[in-house]
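Figure caption, in words: inputs first, then the predicted bound structure.
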Amino acid sequence: MSVTVRVPAKVNVQLAVGAARPDGFHDLANVFLAVGLYDEVTVTPADGLRITCSGPDAAQVPLDATNLAARAAIALAERHGIAPDVHIHIAKDIPVAGGMAGGSADGAAALLACDALWSTGATRDELLAICAELGSDVPFSLVGGAALGTGRGERLTPIDVGGTFHWVFAVADGGLSTPAVYGEFDRLTAGTDVPAPEASPALLDALRTGDTAALAGALSNDLQPAALSLRPSLADTLAAGTAAGALAALVSGSGPTTAFLVADAESAHKVAEALLTSGTCRNARTAVSPAPGASLV
Ligand code: C5P
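Bound structure (cytidine-5'-monophosphate present):
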């Protein structure tokens, strides 16, 4: 018997970053929006814990115990006195190390899949607590839709979304390390007074009313200067998408994927084509939001 879970990518429509905390993390006002690019994680009983991965970027995915899917299986098994003897297969479609929470998505998906396989009877709150232990973005991968993440991003308040938003994502060559981008944020803001992060009322309104133009005007990412500092060529990608008619452009999370908000599906295809021919990215993908969270298929 196997269990398969489908899980979405995310884009941060607002990522407000506070000063570094004593534990090294940063307090955030992190507005997550799940987008319709999905990984599928299948778990099957096996003699021991094993991970495999398929998809165009499979070679970049770690297949050892650092993979969040493995850590999720181990964490759930430990709590319930079960041996984590599963083969976890990840069908990877979310860009790897791209700032779209692909690794977090696989952690949430593996957790939900193992929970179903082992019939642990874990409550939703228990699953969310394990997600928060695995990483700051993992709880959101479980819930999907849209949510405000506070604390280090793991404390979620759901946000209603009143419409469909169209996006293009430009996938860069190579990844960016999230700790390195936060480190660069610290370097760039050293000696300045970093304000406490707060969600933008205009942005939350734009989501609630499904107003694309208003959302375009309210997108922001405090990690963008740090990502651009580490990867200056991303400025060319942002400019190429904007020149092709995107309503707004920003780095997705810690990058290096760049996100372009567009008016409709037709515009999405035009902007994706232009990005592909611009030579400023490795691939361009279209997707709509919001998308549902991790769910059994
Ligand atoms: O929580 P997660 O394991 O995804 O975080 C990865 C790294 O990103 C952390 O080790 C930290 O360097 C940085 N981070 C941070 N503040 C946050 C979330 C992540 O500094 N709120």
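The chain has ten helices and twelve strands.
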